């Protein structure tokens, strides 16, 4: 496993930057200018509706050196493709990213310092339910309230699922980690095929946790359906009782605005995983880029 260099920030963007086209006589300023031009002063983002996309846009406004930069929003898959191509070709790129994620197993990345703390402090991944779940499905509510695991668990699943189906990988993980899983289900009565809808986000982090929870709930008798939704839509669905729960809420920063808007009818069971980071990230070979303030200003 390659070394991960973490920053103090709470939000994660990944950006390999290569200083190219500079001769021995070039000044440091010229090198930085060439880096910015090579990147076209663009950060490769993810889904526009993601909480971290909103914060990334805010970051451009907070840092004077990022005036004139742009966020190119597409999808998580698109971001990962751009990242892989840039690293393979040793070309500069800035992308929206987060940990835990398998890209930190694949590449040597570092998270940029965020002196203005726009991305906030350390995040957690939280379990949320709709109002009334505790009374209507107490067994599921109890399992969800006990659910807690480590970033290493999630990251191992994501890496293994690069080659195999998530359902297969998570089923094996549940069996291989039976002692931990039993802590979530000990003493809970079985149910008889009650339908349960688990809201998720189509990111590999959430695919990992959602599939693990689906497998565990199925073991105690629930008929579980995983519904993938855009983050904003997921919070609306929880608020309106259209899904029963999610184990993939990034709080308090990345998706905090959604919770403020829709949280009135949402029950917060707290973090099921701590130690997440989202923000600006560069590959470790970008030795001169350690902070957001190190990104070159645009003329």
Structure overview:
It comes from Alkalibacterium putridalgicola. Residues 1-21 form the signal peptide. This is Glycine betaine/proline transport system substrate-binding protein. The protein is of the alpha/beta class. The radius of gyration is 21 Å and the shape is elongated. Helix 7 (151-160) packs across helix 10 and helix 8 (166-176) packs across helix 10. Helix 10 links the parallel strand 7 and strand 8. The protein has helices at residues 28-38, 51-62, 76-88, 103-106, 133-136, 138-146, 151-160, 166-176, 178-185, 204-219, 231-239, 256-262, and strands spanning 11-14, 42-44, 70-72, 95-99, 109-111, 123-130, 195-200, 223-228, 245-251, 266-283. The two termini are 39 Å apart. It has two domains: 11-121 and 278-294, D-Maltodextrin-Binding Protein, domain 2, CATH 3.40.190.100; 123-275, Dipeptide-binding Protein, domain 3 (Roll), CATH 3.10.105.
What would the keywords be for this entry?
two-stranded parallel sheet; elongated; D-Maltodextrin-Binding Protein, domain 2; Dipeptide-binding Protein, domain 3; 38% helix; 299 residues; single chain
